[in-house]
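Database export, one record per block. Field names are fixed; values are copied verbatim from the stored entry.
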Amino acid sequence: MEEKNTEIIEEKKPTEQIVIKNEIHEKKSEKILSKKITIKSVICIILVLVMLIGSFYAGYKVAENRFAYKGIDNTVVVDQIKKCGDLIVIEYNYPDFYSFNKGPVPILFNTKFTMYYVANVKATTNLEKTKATVNNIKKDVVVKIPHAKIKEIIIDDDSVKLFDDSGSVFKHRQHEDIIEAKKKAKKKTEKKIPKDEILSKADQQTIKVIKKLLNFMKEDGYEIKVSFIEK
């Protein structure tokens, strides 16, 4: 009996070995399959990230181009400045005296007096002639404007005072004489005023006005350059 039992035990051993081998093979297959799934998952994640980054970059470029078109268009800059038209940048008050003497016969029939007056001198810049160039790469704006000019000289009526030979203030009845005296005083003022100094200050004032008008671009990082149109 003991010999038979031993034989039976020995007959079962090959079967157990096959089962063990099958189990090992299945475990290896599961590991290989698991590795394949992991690799595919990683590849999918990488592809999704690449697509997301690409979409973000494309969207950024579109938004950037739209902003650049709206924010730095040449026409917008020029129109903004041209709204000012013929801009009065300097008002200069020039006080002076003018001696008026009229009449063929000195003492009896002549009209003679000294007139004190204040002339109001206006210097303007015609901003309707403005030109502008916007450089998106360098982020600068070059604006060209004409030089300022003396627009007009007006004798302030409220400032006029008449003096006789003794230096006393008096009211002259001949209105025509006062009108003529004012015309001549205006011509005298045109020759005597410090024209270069006034126009230089007017040009500098115009530059300040332009930069203030375009301050919204300066806040976006643009450099504002203003130069003059030379004849």
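Remark 1: The first strand starts at residue 86 and ends at 102.
Remark 2: Residues 1-71 form one domain.
End of record.
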